[in-house]
Design a protein that fits this description.
- This protein has one domain: Beta-Lactamase.
- It has a six-stranded antiparallel β-sheet, sandwiched between helices.
- It contains four helices and six strands.
- The chain is globular, with a radius of gyration of 15 Å.
- It is an alpha+beta fold.
């Protein structure tokens, strides 16, 4: 799926990259806020929606943030914030589908160098880099992937990976 135009939607701001220290500080604030908000919460969709909102608020390089849920042998759009996402993604297709198959986090510095349709699925032409995290439940079953896109190349790194994996483990596996 691709938008007919790569103009930025009026309601979305372009990404602003952070330095490593700014990232650390923003993630610390987000992690604290999530802890206060989600303490004792068990509803998966409520947790996903809250995580999206808080992370998009604290991290201005998050252009699109959301979950693709494992459903009927493929990924289907779940809670997200941003422009329209792909409704369904086949396992093994694109970054999200490949992360669902490998069950390992993937950071893509520049989505434009990936083969479209197999290595990358362009849901929005404004997305230039992304990170995708597998999301497991307490039984270690894959329930979703967490996808974050930026309008700038090279927005994501090991700091993002560390905090996002920690958030997914804490709120969906009940650890951390």
């Amino acid at each position: 799926m691709s938008n007919s135009s790569n103009q930025m939607p009026y309601f979305i701001k372009p990404s602003i990259n952070f330095s490593l220290s700014e990232k650390e500080e923003a993630y610390q604030h987000a992690f604290t806020e999530l802890g206060l908000l989600l303490e004792g919460e068990n509803d998966t969709i409520l947790k996903m929606s809250s995580i999206n909102s808080i992370l998009k608020t604290h991290l201005p390089y998050f252009y699109w943030v959301g979950f693709y849920l494992v459903s009927n042998g493929r990924l289907s759009i779940g809670p997200y914030q941003g422009t329209l996402g792909c409704l369904h993604i086949e396992l093994g297709k694109g970054v999200c589908g490949n992360v669902a198959m490998s069950k390992h986090t993937k950071i893509v510095e520049d989505v434009d160098i990936l083969v479209q349709g197999t290595e990358h699925i362009s849901c929005d032409p404004n997305s230039k880099s992304e990170i995708v995290i597998p999301v497991f439940d307490s039984k270690k079953d894959l329930i979703a992937v967490f996808d974050v896109d930026s309008t700038l190349p090279k927005s994501f790194d090991v700091v993002d990976q560390k905090y996002l994996e920690r958030i997914m483990i804490r709120y969906f596996q009940g650890q951390g």
